[in-house]
From TrEMBL:
This is Protein ApaG. It comes from Flagellimonas maritima. PANTHER family: F-BOX ONLY PROTEIN 3, POLYMERASE DELTA-INTERACTING PROTEIN 2. Residues 3-128 form the ApaG domain. PROSITE patterns: APAG (PS51087).
Amino acid sequence: MFTQVTKGIRVSVQTTFEGTFFKNYKMHYAFGYTITIENQTKNTVQLTARHWDIFDALKEIETVDGEGVIGKKPVIKPNKSHTYSSGCLLASPIGAMKGHYNMVNLASSEEFEVNIPTFKFAAPFAIN
C-alpha cells in the first residue's frame, strides 16, 4: 500500500494486476487501483478535480486532468473517508501513476492540492 498525507488529508492506494488482452493487435496490461481519501482535519472538504501523470515503460508520460473522481465530487466530513476503484491500461507490464486532487475547505472556501503518492504497477511475471 502507498500512503501520503497532505494538509491533513491522507491518501492510500492499493494496486492489483487484472490481466492481459489484445487490443488493436497490441498486448495491453490492465491494472486496478483502489484509493481511500481520509479527512483527518476538523473541516469538511470536497474533492473537485484530479490530475494524473501516468508512466508506462514503453510510452511517453500521459497526463490526465478532469473533474472529480469516477463521475463524483465527494464531500468528506472530518474523520470520514471516501473510497473508490478505477483502472489503467498500459502497453508495458511495468508502470506507475502519481498526481494530485484539487480540494476545497467548505468552511473557509480555501482551495488546496492534496498529493497522491506515486504508486507502481507491475505484472507478477515481470518482477524478478
